[in-house]
Amino acid sequence: MIEGALILLVGVVVGRMLPNRQKTQLTQPEEPYCGCDHHLAMHDSKTGVCHEQVETGHTKPVMSPGRTYVLYRETLTEQCNCRQYVGPIPADQVLASFQPREIA
Question: Which of 32, 47, 86, 88: disulfide with 40, CB 3.0–4.6 Å?
Answer without folding.
Answer: 32
